[in-house]
Design a protein that fits this description.
heterodimer, A: mainly alpha, MetI-like fold, 14 helices, about 0% strand, B: alpha/beta, Rossmann fold, 6-stranded mixed sheet, about 35% helix
Chain lengths: ~300, ~525
Amino acid sequence: MVRLILRRLWMAIPTLFAIIIISFLLMRFAPGGPFDGERPLSSETKAALENSYGLDKPIWEQIMLYIGRILQGDFGPSLIYRDFTVNELIAQGLPVSLLIGGLALVLASIIGISGGLIAASKAGKAIDEILMLFATLLTALPTFVTGPLLVLIFAFTLGWFPVSGMDDGISWLVLPVIALSLPITGAIIKLVRAGLAVQLSQDHLRSAKARGLSPLKRLFRHALRPALVPAASYLGPAAAGLLTGAVVIETIFGLPGLGRYFVQGALNRDYPLVLGVVTLYASFIIAFNLLADIIYGWLDPRMRDS
Amino acid sequence: MIYSARNLSIGIDENILVHDVNFDIEAGKILALAGASGSGKTLTCLSPFRLNTGKASGSALLLGQEIIGLSEQILSPIRARDVGFIFQQPLTALTPHLTISAHLIEASMQAGIIPSHDNLITILEKVGLSRPTDKLRQYPHQLSGGERQRICIAMGIIHNPKLLVADEPTSALDAELRRDITLLLHDICHENNMAMLLVSHDLASIESSADDVILLQNGYVEEQSSTRLLVQKPQSAYGTSLIAATPRMDEPISAILPIGDKLLDARNISVNFSRPFQFFRSKSEDNKVRAVRNASLTICQGETLAIVGGSGSGKSTLARAIAGLGPISKGQIYWQEQELPIKRSRQNRALMQPVFQDPIASLDPRWRVGDMIVEPQKYLLDDMSDILGPAELLLEVGLKTEFLERLPAQLSGGQAQRVAIARALSVRPKLLILDEATSALDPLAAHNIVQILQSLQEKYGLAILMITHDLALARRMAHKIGVMKDGQLVECRPKDQLLTAPQHDATRKLIENSL
């Protein structure tokens, strides 16, 4: 197991570099640049600006310089938010994004696993059908639909929660966290339900029944843990979903998270900002996949030895 | 009386699949339910306890209490307290994320007994497991199939039940283990004065353990008597054919067909597998698994060579190396004095054709029989004159032309294996390589395959290389028998010599275990 984790960490290094280089090149090949404003700059000014940021050097040299800086933990200066480094912008935005994303993942896991358990234990009954329909609906509805809908009902009409922005309390968190968690909840319900359906027909459950275990005990003690393996493998994609979802949610709810910087950085060709956020996102997704491997090992001891 | 059935019938949906079974099992006695697959033996044993989809009617009395018609809530504690169950598949019968001790403790607690650590050790020793303290901490996947079945038995008896229900407890195990486990069950029953209902299609297991036997065919009781009487003097036609179909070590050896010139000469075959890459490997540890070591054998036209050995002895690996289907690390293979290349040509492949253990798995589920059996002709033959067409091939294996349109799912195990043989025959091979070709089949279907192979051998002078764990079957079919142990072909001689004067311990052990 330790060997597996070390090997995954080792593999993460080339993966990250490949992502950085590809994103770097893609950004540069996209038309436009950071200094193309509504009012064109004189070519001398533009050349001077590009020179001061090192954008006039050959592209490979720029990549090497950039990677060199990243290795020292420096993502460089933002080209648009002058006076700010990318590190500072990330330090501002990351806590908000982490808070929303983390809470959404916890909420999605709790509701998803409970929903899957209920559906599987009532397989074929009305409640199962309703839950599965509900799960399909959740996965199908994008956050830019559910977000504004939640705002319309719970903020504008009922007035329970703030419409947007953040304050000192916690009520501002409720709607963004729910909106972000909905699609993942749907997916987890389905995965847990399917995982349990497979486990419940296994031989070892019949053995447990033969030993006189009650249906509830069979479900929790003998079926649930192996049944969570598919849901655990969904952690990596779920992390990616949370990050991309956060981009939309932070924009809808006007929250100063990482996602907003990401969108604005991309629109403004703020190369260092976009690359910084991409590197961070990629590291998150790799970390979540690693976490999934560790959870596998806990869920199913067979994985520890393989 | 521990367990009795009166007019016990089992149905699924509206269909009655088992009719009017009657029996009584006393303490310390073993009753076996025998019959081909689909005869209803598992339904008969599990349905009264509500452990499968069958619905039982009639009467089943456990310790004087009627269990048919009881609700799950009432039946469940009875199962936990008075009955122990052992199922066919030891590999999947244990919960993967629970340790052995968790399993044993749970089984005992369900019957209301809290076991001490010493109780657990004692029960593991009783079922013949070594290093019981270590075993308690291990997970199921860390144990072998035989060890897991012993754990299942330990779980079945830890609470001292009155009745043990064992559904094919040995059929997923190899021959040596099968015998050990059968004897273990027999001894435990007698020591604990337990009654046992044993389901098996293996007459050898039944003969060595059961007191009485019920023969089922298509859901009807064909014969019910003491085991000894059934074996010595079967009363029903079905019983007679079943006894005749099962190879025995003491049956007379039938005349064997004459053999022709030497076809295949395999010299000093070795097969090594590398172990998976490991960071920290001790220097002394060899990086190779030596699956086959220096095995040499010859096969002549019209000759049957049986390679016999336990699981993991390397017999299948050797057969695959010879067939050109698996890796070969060292050694040469000559066909009529010509060396065969490592990478076989199409002509080479047509010379020898394989038939595998699981007939259904070796047929593509989406192909029709008629297309499947002539497929090899397209790829392996240049000369398409005087080849057999699909209908003729089916006739060779005793199937009617109506099977041409069938899909594998519409075939029984025996029929599917006949189709696999027809497919192998389609390219006019000189040698058939059979890897446990009959061991997944019930005795009658297996016997049918054996007869077909023998008639094909007589008709075409086919050479046969058969891999089997069943020495009695090898004795019945083969000219020569080779014994494999730990990758070595320890002895390979004409069968009468090998059986009457074994030279190697492994051979002696094998003969002893087969009696």
